[in-house]
Amino acid sequence: MTLNAWIPVFALMTSLIASLVIFALPEKGYRLRTWVNLGAALVKLSLVVVMVWGVFQGVEYGLSFTMVPGVTFVLKADALSMMFAGLSAVLWLLTTIYAVGYLEDSPNRSRFFGFFSLCVASTMGIALAGNLFTFFLFYEMLTLSTYPLVVHRGTEKALRAGRTYVIYTLTGGAVLLLAIAWLHGVAGDLPFREGGHFMDADPDIHRSLILIFILLVAGLGVKAAIFPLHGWLPQAMVAPAPVSALLHAVAVVKAGAFGIVRVVYDIYGVEASSALGVLEPLAWLAAFTILYGSFRALSQTDLKRRLAFSTVSQVSYIILGISLFGPVAAAGGLVHLLHQGIMKITLFFCAGNYAETLGIHRIDEMDGAGRRMPGTSVAFTIGAFGMIGAPPLAGFITKWTMGSGALAANMDWVIVVLLSSSLLNAAYFLPVMHRLWFREPAGSWPEERHWGRLETSAWLFWPPLLTAVMTVMVGVLASLPFSPLSWAELIALREYSP
Amino acid sequence: MTLWLMAGLLFTPLAWAVLTLLTDFSRGRLVTWGGILVQVLVSLGLWLTVARDGGFHYGLGGWQAPLGIELRVDGLAVTFVLLTAVVASACGLHAGVYIDPDKPWHRYFWPLFWFLWSGLNVVWLGGDLFNLYVGLELISLSAVGLVALGGKANALRASLRYLLAALLGSLVYLLGVALMYGQFGTLSIAGVVSWLGVHPVPAGSGLALALMVTGLALKTALFPLHRWLPPAHGIARSPVSALLSALVVKASFYMAARLWLELGEPLGNLAAAQLVGLLGSAAVVWGSWLACRQPQLKQVVAYSSVAQIGYLFLLFPLTYSVSESVSLQAQQGITLQVISHALAKAAMFLAAGNLILSAGSNRVDALTGVSRFLPFSLFSFGLAGVSLMSLPPTGGFAAKWLLLQASLGSGQWWWILVMLIGGLLSAAYVFRIYRASFLESAGPDRFYHPARSLEVIPMILALLALGLGLASDQVLSVMALPFEEGGSP
């Protein structure tokens, strides 16, 4: 086998090995653990960069072997997987830096970072999986490796949230397994392929295909937090901030959304899905979730819970984008996979900074925090404006592309959804920003900590600023090659003209 | 070469049983280490021989059936021989450290251990119904003895109950054997099969098969005949529980499966096959449900065995009057389930033993804070749990996948529901343990930290269960090796 076959394996193994090393390190090995973490994150990032360049050039990366009789384990790098792998590699590095500062002096750090790396290894596996079976393997591994992170604090509340999380995700997993096994029985072992497999499917199996599609979306929809399967997400907010950041921006919700993209594009094929009549109901469901999440976000008083409902809403943009039949809308949905990740992680980093530095958890405690923590608040403001869709930030690119795609596909109602969702976004983010910048502080902060020369610990200070800068850059430079938008257009193009 | 391997395999355990009978616990441990080495090498050697040259029939001492002892050395049998070597040596090494050498009755541990091992090898390789019976009795009696080593009054009660169940099972089985002999005039399974090839099926031979399977099902603790298992497996010392759950119940199931696969098609019927599958499903649901409700850690694991054994009996409906490929899938799935459950359950019992040793209590809620101070054993327990939940990439998952495919392929979709519900219920009882151990308690480390060797052994077993999923194609390929058919009538 050539080196190219092994590069995806190496990318997967870096975090897996890092995880095992971290588990083996003693709890007190603080410095070494940090180096292992950061070293692995950097190695992985460079491997992903190599693969992105290779995939652009048309190089084939991948390996496969028979795992169980009749099914193969396939790792493969294609344009779509690079999108998710790139997101996870970049944000893993930043979140690791953030988590090192966040968890300073707290117990169980060895366990935390071990499972953290395992979680990223699963995300990488999800990105690189070359068929549904392999995808499912890592999808369930993700469930298991995030559980200890959700319950990390070990309080009754955290354990309750963990229980809800597990009930939702494992049930979703069981439904997904049923669907995958059934599909395997109907059509055999299907590799992910641009354009899908069911263009000229036998009409006899149409009914089974539709049922399987519903089961697949139901199984994946739990992690993607599609209404009414989103209940676990706001509860899981009790987890430490780096975990929420990663869960929301990269790992869990994106794994679900990414899976749905894979099913629609690379298993069914967008034309076949459209012909089966499953895309339009999916679009309606996504549109409803977008509005529902935003409405619920309005009434939340806890900052992280408001952000959680905002995630419910934002992830469905991706699903709406791919279920509108047309390459432009598709690019809009796909690019949101990255854009939402970058913006949401900024917001969660900031929420964590407020909580750790000033003890702020509720929105009504945020009055005047902009003066005490200007750096964090600038980052928060950029992230929030991005979510609302103010030009030229990342969210604007998404909404603009999707809107023009919807018009091109003659689905004008989508414009109404996009506009009302933006209004709602503004309605729940602008008051927060008003409190940050324009209100007087209430006197003393709930739990203030002084942490070196900056407004907060340097480990916590820089990651949100960096992601905020990225939020601006991906918007301003959207038309350059290798920007998220041009990469998404590349994928959409390959899907619509395979 | 083969002669030496076979002789080593069958006679060293007996020789070691006698040797260790003459010593006390500590010296017996030293002797046992040597025996474990021999057994592992011989089992591996035999497995490699069969993997290279294919399986064969072997007349012990040159005597062929019907007079001599006929052995059937095929890919499946040597795979189980090797599995036994792995699991039994892990349990033996663990027991050497875990069991307190000062209690005088513990010196009987090693002889019983070796008798058990020799019985297992006889069952995996046995070719005729009577030898299988002898092996099975050897297993049952030594297993009962091992349970009784728990020492306390309730251990004796549990072992007596176990003894009664085992004897009743044997009686029913023997009745079936007698009927069989009366009808076919042979005790060799291969002999019966070739007899049936020429003659029509005699009336009433279905009853013989039913009796044999019922007796074996009682020994395997199939629902509703499972009541003896949880007290016995729960009360025994942890390495003993591991041996019992991982290997002993598998021996009687293995015999039932062999009988069914050879004789089920001519002698069985559809209703009986479905009934056995239904009882297996009931075991899955009921066993998991009870496992969720046990206050004691080892009882949780023991009830989980009841549930996991239930899956094995899906073999009956999934191989009866279905296509060749579906039947193969089902057999492969069940084989993987046997292997992965053996590895995972042994790992889980050994890890549970460590946790109980550390926490000083068998209760689930005594685990508070374990995750912080004793992560290693908990991690082994957790990994084994992943295999029991049949989540990827473990052997349990590969098994479930094949069984799902077999159910789909034969249109028996109702087993799919059982498997999905069973998977979720097993997650419920495994996560219950995680939940208890992730709870943070105030205060310093109050746990006893067991020796590193005790902690490493379950981890190795759990990793093997995990790796089995990735390598299941290779493991199964040994079973598909050519087998030189030539069983004498």
TrEMBL record, chain A:
Keyword set, alphabetical order: Cell membrane, Membrane, Transmembrane, Transmembrane helix
InterPro entries, sorted: CPA3_Na-H_Antiporter_D, ND/Mrp_TM, Proton_antipo_N
NADH:quinone oxidoreductase/Mrp antiporter transmembrane domain location: 129-423
TM ranges: 6-26, 38-59, 79-100, 112-139, 165-187, 208-233, 245-265, 277-295, 315-338, 378-401, 413-438, 459-480
Membrane topology: Multi-pass membrane protein
Localization terms from the record: Cell membrane; Membrane
Statement: the UniProt record of this protein carries the keyword Transmembrane: yes
Start and end residues of each NADH-Ubiquinone oxidoreductase (complex I) chain 5 N-terminal domain: 71-113
Cellular component GO terms, alphabetical: plasma membrane
Similarity-based family: Belongs to the CPA3 antiporters (TC 2.A.63) subunit D family.
PANTHER family registered for this protein in UniProt: NA(+)_H(+) ANTIPORTER SUBUNIT D1, NADH DEHYDROGENASE
Protein name: Monovalent cation/H+ antiporter subunit D family protein
